[in-house]
Amino acid sequence: MDCFDFYLPTRILFGAGKLDELARVALPGRKALIVTTGGQSVRKYGYLGRVIALLAQNGGVESVVFDKVLPNPVRSHVMEAAALCREHGCDFVVGLGGGSAIDSAKSIALMARNPGDYWDYVQGGSGLGRPVMNGALPVIAITTTAGTGTEADPWTVITHDDNQEKVGYGGDLLFPALSIVDPELMLTVPPRLTAYQGFDAFFHAAEGYIANIANPVSDMFALRSMRLIYDYLPTAVARGDDLEARTQVAMANTFAGIVESTSSCTSEHSLEHAMSGIAPDLPHGAGLIMISLAYFRHFARLIPERVTEMARNLGIDVDALPGADRPMAFVRALERMQKACGVDQLRMSEYGITPADFPRLAALARHAMGGLFSMDRAPLTDAAILQIFEESYK
Amino acid sequence: MDCFDFYLPTRILFGAGKLDELARVALPGRKALIVTTGGQSVRKYGYLGRVIALLAQNGGVESVVFDKVLPNPVRSHVMEAAALCREHGCDFVVGLGGGSAIDSAKSIALMARNPGDYWDYVQGGSGLGRPVMNGALPVIAITTTAGTGTEADPWTVITHDDNQEKVGYGGDLLFPALSIVDPELMLTVPPRLTAYQGFDAFFHAAEGYIANIANPVSDMFALRSMRLIYDYLPTAVARGDDLEARTQVAMANTFAGIVESTSSCTSEHSLEHAMSGIAPDLPHGAGLIMISLAYFRHFARLIPERVTEMARNLGIDVDALPGADRPMAFVRALERMQKACGVDQLRMSEYGITPADFPRLAALARHAMGGLFSMDRAPLTDAAILQIFEESYK
């Protein structure tokens, strides 16, 4: 019988031009720590300056900037920024950028209020999983990419500098208080990153749909998200300044974040986090694309009904196909979408991953993000993991 | 261009058997004021006793009961229960029952923390619209009917004892902290009430879909809600013990509540609240059913595209119809659903409303709930209001 638990306390302001509301919304304090990436894009396109100015317009809110965040953000930066936050007495943390900036903001908001090391609290890997006693500062997420959905979920992924563990962590405390998703800030994302991030969002929705805790609410957001990305991502990649395509992909991404709050990723994400854990230059979305055809081919055989529904939702007339072929229509659609976005030829060998790494990747996936395997509707054996990596290897 | 604001901080536990989680969830205090209706159903079926016992199991939380709530709840009871709440030092308010109990719980939670009279704060009618300075106690909503969606929205409708004003009021403070929607508690709702309440939920969704502030999130919930009610309400009315039908209708109702949180009702609700304001025995859902065919016929002419989409969503092959006939397919579907639920012969004359009342009803609708007229995509003139009442009169 249908049931669901729903909890999403984040206020989400979505739409072109919405960033300007930052000057008018109720803010959770008088001083902000703005967390952003070390790359130039948030400066080059003026986003950082705009955010500082809008906060100042909002009754003179002051800003302190931490701009060292790496594409795969690391534990040591979380600790450094949390110390900066305490030193300046910041009341809330603004994550400005993609998932790396916003995930960092969440983890920093936690460590600004709690003693010890971030790895004392994370669950998974060598994290000690200690209870959080002092809450977290409020987080405001301002997205400049469409990929992680972190603006609409309570999760953060941080890599340990020393041991390469890339661990997802989170809970109710880490929902952003406010998220602003303004597709105008995404017009300048380069084509390749647009594709990687869009596929990441697509897989959040697809995994959330095949997860064993999927429910009527997560299904609704997941199906809508997949359809929007299938329809609009190729245009967003080809013509980055198409605001309509950017808007639909951004909405799909936020919806996929809601899926992550109401359902869960599955083992595909564990496999990929292991890959980009040992190959830090590998973008997360690219890693997912590399293994996705083999992964969903595997689950198309195990849970054909759900995978067939995903194909139907993309507009494919599955009823006209022979029964056994219906779930595979989803895999073919995925392949077409990869071609349409120019990402069908990604090779893990280019990032230094070799078949000799596969057993280690399988072990790392279970060690660092083993929990997601329990979300699969059918158990993924070690043999199946190795087969997925082998089929995906180029 | 698509945009939306989303804010729904309520934790929603939905599904058969979910009431038992009340013994385990985190509660916002040690003493509850349970607000429920004067009718016998919550006692007869043991719901009140179960809630008191489950709260006690949850670390010994104590309960105080206020059980005078009327079907159209009144201001004087809000004030009386708020005084009781303060007197006993209750930490939170549990609304147990239908919309009347839960709406009362919200208003009581407000008045337990603020001075003066409830009508000092309400906006609309003769309410003074003063700002709320002291917040509100947390509210837990436990629904025993599927009609108002109040468990997933921040609204409450209370009638003034003296002047018959029936005013909707609310805001972020009045979202329930926790809502438990357990369809097992709805198995005993009599057929006629099941129909009235189900149609009320349907109109929350339909109005939210044609409202001028509808957006991609509210549309998704509205379309799903309407389809579930269209498919399952006749069964829930005919076989009240069908848990599957009850579950789907309950889900549709909660989704319609989310529509009320993300979009808005339109003038149909203003017209009906005026009707049941002057005819207190008229159930709200019955009043809506009475005027709905004329109301949606009117808007089918004004905004044919949106109304056609609602027909398509119900599974009607609108593309096979002549253009002008497509939006009217929705009105015919509504008529079929009324017949299938046995509520196509309701007469406002049986509740003492006569054509001589229509001008007064039109004026009262604008006076007490005028704000909803601004949510219509095309202005509803006084002449059109009178025509809707006249066409609806039996």
What oligomeric state is this? homodimer
Q: If strands are numbered along the chain, what order do they take across the biggest sheet of chain A? A: 1-8-5-4-2-3
- Provide the gyration radius of chain A in Å: 20 Å
Q: Regions of chain A with pLDDT < 50 over 5+ consecutive residues?
A: none
Q: CATH superfamily name of the largest domain in chain A?
A: Dehydroquinate synthase-like - alpha domain
Instruction: Compute the average pLDDT of chain A.
Output: 96
* Total beta-strand segments of chain A: 8
Our count of domains of chain A comes out at 2
| Range of strand content of chain A | 5-15%
Which structural class do the helices and strands of chain A define?
alpha/beta
Q: What name does CATH use for the topology of the largest domain in chain A?
A: Dehydroquinate synthase-like, alpha domain
CATH class designation of the largest domain in chain A: Mainly Alpha
Account of the 3D structure:
Two copies of one chain form a homodimer. The relative contact order of chain A is 0.12. Chain A is 47% helix and 13% strand. In chain A, a hairpin with a 6-residue loop joins β6 (155-159) and β7. Chain A is globular, with a radius of gyration of 20 Å. Chain A has 394 residues and is of the alpha/beta class. Chain A folds into two domains: 11-186, Rossmann fold (3-Layer(aba) Sandwich); 191-392, Dehydroquinate synthase-like - alpha domain (Dehydroquinate synthase-like, alpha domain), CATH 1.20.1090. Chain A has 13 helices and eight strands. The N and C termini of chain A lie far apart (44 Å). In chain A, α6 (216-238) packs antiparallel against α7 (243-262). The first copy, chain A, has a six-stranded parallel sheet with strand order 1-8-5-4-2-3, sandwiched between helices. Chain A has a two-stranded antiparallel sheet with strand order 6-7. The interface between A and B is medium-sized, with 26 and 26 residues. β1 (4-14) of chain A pairs antiparallel with β1 of chain B.
